């Protein structure tokens, strides 16, 4: 695990007197455990440049544990991280969906977003929604795809009142894009008011995977499995 950058808890206590510059040197080290340590130490930094350095590190990090620690620190830095993270949606890593997957997700939970930035944003829960909602109006479909995942996840576990109409508008705007439609159908599983629209789309859609996703969302909207 050391080769992947793992360090035990509380190791950072020995380095609490490090300067900001010393922590940045650790974050940018060629040694994975140093990068993990640097990221962890930066979680309590009040330097205005901390978030920028963490995000730049996240863009190039390949090892698991430094990546985890960078994301942890971005969350611990608070709401200041939200806008810079949103700007990176869909741009880090290559794990994002590019097509509607043929395999159904059959668990009773909401699927964890695949995009690492989206996964980090959901940890802010409802605090991130105001900024995420703005992305529903973007023309950048890569960013939009991952924002929908984050919105869907947050709203599935937290009651909200004003996002469903925005999702519906976005869906109608991208009627030609099955990936966006699939993601929005999934996100609608967190909104009781989506039931009539999903029932309507069920009659109009012919694509098998979209129909399967509608059925799954309707089960949650109807109170099953939740």
Can you offer a commentary on this structure?
By secondary structure, the protein is mainly α. It folds into two domains: 2-77, no CATH class; 116-221, no CATH class. The protein is built from twelve helices and no strands. Helix 2 (32-41) runs parallel beside helix 4 (64-76), helix 10 (178-187) runs parallel beside helix 12 and helix 11 (195-204) runs antiparallel to helix 12 (208-221). The chain is elongated and about 65 Å long. The chain starts with 19 loop residues before the first helix and ends in a 5-residue tail after the last helix. 39% of the residues are buried.
What is the fold's blueprint, element by element?
Elements: H1 20-27, H2 32-41, H3 50-60, H4 64-76, H5 82-86, H6 116-121, H7 129-135, H8 141-157, H9 164-173, H10 178-187, H11 195-204, H12 208-221
Helix pairs in contact: 1-2, 2-4, 3-4, 7-8, 8-10, 9-10, 10-12, 11-12
Largest sheet: none
Number of domains: 2
Secondary structure tally: strands:
0
Q: Helix amount, in percent?
A: 40-55%
**Average pLDDT, to the nearest integer?**
95
Beta-strand percentage? under 5%
Intertermini distance = 37 Å
Shape: elongated
Count up the helices. 12
> Quaternary arrangement of the chains shown?
single chain
Q: What would you call the structural class? A: mainly alpha
Radius of gyration over all CA atoms, rounded: 20 Å
Show unreliable segments. Answer: none
Along the chain, the helix and strand elements come as HHHHHHHHHHHH
Features:
226 residues, 0% strand
Please outline what is shown here.
By secondary structure, this protein is mainly α.
């Amino acid at each position: 695990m050391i080769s992947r950058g793992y360090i035990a808890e509380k190791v950072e206590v020995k380095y609490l007197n490090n300067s900001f510059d010393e922590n940045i040197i650790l974050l940018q080290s060629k040694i994975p455990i140093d990068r993990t340590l640097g990221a962890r130490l930066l979680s309590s930094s009040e330097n205005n440049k901390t978030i920028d350095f963490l995000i730049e590190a996240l863009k190039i990090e390949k090892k698991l544990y430094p990546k985890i620690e960078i994301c942890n620190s971005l969350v611990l830095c608070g709401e200041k991280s939200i806008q810079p993270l949103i700007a990176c949606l869909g741009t880090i890593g290559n794990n994002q969906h590019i097509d509607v997957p043929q395999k159904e997700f059959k668990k009773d939970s909401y699927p964890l977003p695949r995009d690492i930035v989206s996964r980090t944003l959901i940890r802010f829960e409802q605090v991130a929604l105001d900024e995420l909602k703005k992305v529903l109006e973007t023309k950048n479909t890569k960013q939009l795809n991952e924002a929908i995942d984050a919105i869907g996840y947050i709203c599935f576990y937290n009651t909200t009142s004003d996002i469903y109409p925005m999702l519906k508008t976005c869906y109608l705007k991208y009627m030609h894009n099955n990936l966006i439609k699939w993601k929005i159908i999934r996100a609608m599983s967190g909104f009781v008011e989506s039931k009539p629209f999903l029932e309507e789309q069920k009659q109009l859609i012919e694509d098998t995977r979209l129909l399967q996703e509608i059925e799954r969302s309707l089960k949650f909207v109807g109170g099953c499995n939740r």
